[in-house]
Design a protein that fits this description.
The chain has about 110 residues and is α+β, with helices and mostly antiparallel strands. Helices cover about 35% and strands about 20% of the residues.
């Protein structure tokens, strides 16, 4: 399993999210390092299909179920549209579901 946390320096959200993410992974019994990847330019954001900071991908797939329908790539702080409103990090349920899918190989 590959876990990537993409971010850019102008948005502090990834720094606060990283320890929380590591805790979620530990509770799920996943002992995989989180690869932090800084996106440094708008061109890189386009190439990476970077929807904003933080973006969490597991085995190359964004944990946001609606991300495949979006194309607003760029260097920006990301907002996640959830049933409870907008938030700056993905909900725990999305992260856990993505980890479980990756563990099953689906």
């Amino acid at each position: 399993m590959r876990i990537e946390l993409l971010y850019f320096e102008g948005c502090p959200g990834h720094e606060a999210f990283l320890p929380h993410l590591r805790g979620l992974l530990e509770r799920a019994g996943v002992d995989v390092p989180v690869e932090q990847r800084r996106v440094e330019s708008d061109a890189a954001a386009q190439a990476e299909r970077f929807l904003g900071s933080p973006t969490l991908r597991i085995d190359g797939v964004d944990v946001d179920p609606g991300s495949a329908e979006r194309d607003d790539y760029g260097l920006k702080c990301r907002l996640y549209a959830t049933d409870d409103g907008l938030r700056g990090t993905p909900p725990d349920a999305w992260v856990v579901a993505a980890v479980e899918r990756a563990a099953r190989g689906s």
